[in-house]
Amino acid sequence: MRGPLLLVLGDSLAFHGPERGEPADEPRLWPNVAAAGLGGRAVLVAGIGWTARHAWHALTRDPRVWAVMPKVDALVLGVGGMDTLPSPLPTALRELIPVLRPDRLRRAVRAGYQRAQPGLSRAFAVLPGGGPVALPPRLTVGYLEQCRQAVHAIRPGVPVVAALPSVHRASVYAGVHAGRAAAERATREWAAGAGVALLDLPALVGDHVLSGQGNPDGMHWGWPAHAAVGAALAELLEPELGE
């Protein structure tokens, strides 16, 4: 008899360790820690900088997801944190940088934006609401709800877990995270209405990240944080999957 299958839609926090990005089957990553604790396995579909919108696109466009959908026992929406990061350049324009041509132009624009981003993040943080973010909270929870509904249309009643946005001390954003509080409020409100359980990432990894114990980039986690998040996720899911 097989154990539970977790479909995890995530951002880079799901597959980056203390030094680098890791293969999706690295057992110390939090999705795999949770799955092992439940006696099952995790299918991780994730990308660098993924927002809730990217998760929705993966759910609807990636045939790897379609292949596992009939067997999914739980949906984990490990996205939403990157949505809260400062985005001085509108997201639609920023995501066009990798496709600029010629190569010399692309490299110049990328380098210029990376140099400007910390200062612009600080400058925009004084605006009402803390300035522009990668994805506004209303859109984040809208895409999360679309993901929940889509999976429940195929697998009615499977438990869904989402994550509160994590914290960071990343120099590339000058430590600015003015959009996090509003995103947390929106996520909590949506989850309460939709019957979705929440992983409280700030409570689980906040001290680890802010004290500098994680990845030197100030955003990603060390293995103790992955272990804590994985154990908390397994604890959330165990009562429902046990039924």
Automatic annotation (TrEMBL):
Pfam families cross-referenced by the UniProt entry: Lipase_GDSL_2
Keywords, A to Z, come to: Hydrolase
Q: What is this protein called?
A: SGNH/GDSL hydrolase family protein
Q: SUPFAM superfamilies attached here? A: SGNH hydrolase
Establish whether keyword Hydrolase is in the entry: yes
Q: Where is the SGNH hydrolase-type esterase domain positioned along the sequence?
A: 8-220
MF terms from GO for this chain are:
hydrolase activity
